[in-house]
């Protein structure tokens, strides 16, 4: 019996495998995935942000309390606002103590007016003026300060002018002394030239007498030596005159250099 059953099973025709269609399941899966992505995107766009990933950027406070800070800082003298107060552009928030600022302002103003007075003095020196014409802007400073500033520049003006003029005066005096020496040497040249001329005439007369054998040759030689000596003194005096004139030219150049350097110094400070 068992053998027959097995024989029937073996001989029975093979049953076909049932076909399964999953197209509907895949379509359902895509619909669910689309709904999930849409709902999550909508939530991400509308939900309030309670945490974030650190990243570089700039945060601007729109409504919370803001910190105010002065550009240079200082000591607070008074506060015109309180916590939570609303302010608008141009309102005074705090007042800083101006003691230090006022002191610095006074120093800067003093330096400015001193510079104005200095400029006036330099212009007077550049233009070879005998007095300083100060800037009208100095009238903006108080009388005491103005007097101190202008008097300082007047003293400087006088001292510098005296130093320069004194240096030039010394050189001028040296030139005058040399000119006097030249005048003395010129007189020597003239007198020695005349003496040499006289000696030469005398030599001619002695030569006539010597030719007539009325005098000896020794006397004639003495007269000729006197001529040479006198002519040498004339030449030396002329050389001294030329040397003194060259020194005068050098001193005049020094005088011009002093004036030029003075003006150069003035212009460099303007």
Rg for CA atoms: 58 Å
Helical segment count: 5
Low-confidence stretches: 1-18
Strand order of the largest sheet: 1-2
C-alpha end-to-end distance: 138 Å
Q: Structural class given helices, strands, pairing?
A: mainly alpha
Q: How would the global form be characterised?
A: elongated
- Kindly report the average pLDDT value: 79
- Number of DSSP strand runs: 2
Percent strand equals: under 5%
Give structural notes:
The chain has 270 residues and is mostly helical. It has a domain at 103-269. 68% of the residues lie in helices and 3% in strands. It contains five helices and two strands, in the order H-H-E-E-H-H-H. It has helices spanning 2-11, 23-46, 99-126, 143-211, 217-269; strands at residues 76-79, 94-96. Strands 1-2 form a two-stranded antiparallel sheet. Helix 4 (143-211) runs antiparallel to helix 5 (217-269). The longest helix is centred in the middle third of the chain and has 69 residues, at 143-211. The radius of gyration is 58 Å and the shape is elongated. It starts with a helix and ends with a helix.
How would you describe this structure in keywords?
single chain; 270 residues; mainly alpha; two-stranded antiparallel ribbon; 5 helices; 3% strand; elongated
Entry summary:
This protein is mostly helical. The protein has helices at residues 2-11, 23-46, 99-126, 143-211, 217-269, and strands at residues 76-79, 94-96. It has a domain at 103-269.
